[in-house]
Every structure is written in structure tokens, then in C-alpha cells.
TrEMBL record:
Region of interest: Disordered: 134-156
Cited InterPro entries: Nucleotide-bd_a/b_plait_sf, RBD_domain_sf, RRM_dom
PANTHER family to which the protein is assigned, alphabetical: NUCLEOLAR PROTEIN 8 (PTHR48029)
Biased composition (Low complexity): 145-156
Protein name, as recorded: RRM domain-containing protein
Signal peptide region: none
Keywords, alphabetical: RNA-binding
Residues in RRM domain copies: 56-134
DNA sequence: CCTGAGCGG
């Protein structure tokens, strides 16, 4: 039955997430192999590539360019209370950059949502959820003109 | 239109 082969290809041609190529670079697309969970033999010699510490801010990457923030919040609200969910869009082009940020109410929910949505499918694309890096929202750590000393760090 | 590594206003 050659018809079945054609039908199978047609099915995969509709929702073939190109994001899967990150798992297997030179592997056959016909074989399902587990992701190479890195080589844990470096110990602590991976500076720059270290993930951010646990926080309520979640960095979601691998999103579809047409995925709205509502879809993100809806998908992540299944694991916890999403305080804020935003898909990063460009100011000049106005289109999504392919990643977004999801802020949970507590770190526990953020952890559950991160593990629960990391490696899941969204709009036919494999998304990756990890902790966002501590980044100042407005006031830079430089120039302390204010005697208050309040730092608007997105932590917690 | 949005082609895909990536940390936003």
C-alpha cells in the first residue's frame, strides 16, 4: 500500500515543527530518538550557559510567531496562577520575536509550570520554559540619583 | 510575507 505512505507524509507535512531540528541535527527524521541530555561531565565549568536562578519570571522560547500572549497565559495557567504573560514583539516590525515571558504568582507555581510546559507543544511548535534572568525593568543599577535606593529588579 | 536562536517596555 503506497497510499498509506503518502497519507502519512501529508499528515506530517501539515504540522512539522522545524524546532525539532534542534534535537537532532544529523539524525533521520524517521527515527524517534530521545534528546541528548547534554554531557554532564563538565561539573561547573560552563559559564555563560548557566541557567538563571529560580524566580517567578519564566522565559519561554520556541514559541510560534503567531502565538498571542493570551495563548501563552492560557497554556501556562494550567499549572499555576499566571500574573503576567507577554509575548515579546518587535517595535519596528510589530511581529513576535518567537519568545515570551510568563510571570507566576509564586515560585512554586513557576516551577510547576516550567517543568510542565517545558518541551510541550504549542501551536505546533516545541516550546522551552526556563527561568528568566534577573533584569532591571526601568532604573538601571547605574547612577543612583534617588536616595531611596529602590531597585526594580524583576526577581520574585 | 516572516524564513527560528534567542532574555522584553
Amino acid at each position: 500500500m503506497a497510499l498509506r505512505a503518502a497519507a502519512t507524509r501529508s499528515m506530517f507535512a501539515g504540522l512539522a515543527p522545524p524546532g525539532l531540528r534542534r534535537f537532532c541535527s544529523t539524525a533521520s527524521a524517521n527515527s524517534f530518538m530521545p534528546p541528548p541530555i547534554a554531557a554532564m561531565g563538565n561539573g561547573e565549568g560552563t559559564p555563560g550557559r548557566e541557567q538563571a536562578p529560580p524566580s517567578t519570571n519564566l522565559f519561554v522560547s520556541g514559541l510560534n510567531k503567531r502565538t498571542p500572549s493570551e495563548k501563552l497565559r492560557e497554556a501556562f495557567s494550567q499549572f499555576g496562577r499566571v500574573v503576567d504573560a507577554r509575548v515579546v514583539t518587535d517595535r519596528v516590525s510589530g511581529y513576535s520575536k518567537g519568545f515570551g515571558f510568563v510571570r507566576y504568582a509564586t515560585i512554586e507555581e513557576a516551577e510547576k509550570g516550567r517543568v510542565g510546559m517545558d518541551g510541550k507543544f504549542l501551536d505546533g511548535w516545541v516550546i522551552f520554559a526556563e527561568y528568566a534572568r534577573p533584569r532591571p525593568e526601568r532604573t538601571p543599577p547605574q547612577n543612583m540619583s534617588n536616595s531611596n535606593g529602590y531597585n526594580s529588579y524583576g526577581r520574585e
